[in-house]
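Predicting holo structure, magnesium ion bound.
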Amino acid sequence: MPGGLKAVFFDVDDTLYATHYFAWEARRKAVEAMIDAGLRADAESVLERLRIVVDRYTSNYPGHLDRLIEGYSEEAYAPVNPAIIVASGVVAYHGHKERNLFPYEDAKQLLEWLRDREVPAGVITSGIPTKQAEKLVRMDLVEYFEPGWIFISQQMGLSKEDPAIYREVCNTIGVDPRWTIYVGDHPMNDIDMAAEAGMMTVLCRRSGHYSNLVGRHKPTYEVANFLEIIEYIERDFPIR
Ligand SMILES: [Mg+2]
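Done. Tokens:
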């Protein structure tokens, strides 16, 4: 293993793939299917209501479309059974998910590059464990990570908004945090926390989602894509 860099860990959402964009694409498909099934409303106004529901119940809540349809009076869908409207949206949502969940192209390139150079990679993510794992399986990325290096905060009883999880990961793999890199998109939850645990950090700005946030710690590297990460590693570490 090359000296100086012993492990690279990745956040999942909006780091390995465009989570927010993908989720709203899938929700748009759901709304269109609900209208096709008999909901009499225009797509933009339904999406606006869905945004409010998602904000209120958070993104992992399983009943967004049920709550959405409850906001309509019967005249908006009669004589169609509202459960058919909801189910049409659910099927469209999952259909979109099955066909369209891809990692950023250069994320795969970076993972392949690391693998070729025997720099082991892992994941540190938060969320519902099977949901986070499902994303990695669907994107076909599992093979790039060390089998024991998929760390999901909920399974560890820790939060990603706490440097303890990053320390715990480094302890578990037996590597000094100073020789590890954490790649994420959130200036506080990813970069500040990993930096406080002593890791090097890469802030990936491409999703633009947290562009208004500034963390306490300046990231070791700030990039717009993963090819820039390859350039920095080649520049700063003795890796061939
Ligand atoms: Mg993220």
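The beta strands are 7-10, 121-125, 150-152, 180-184, 200-204, 221-223.
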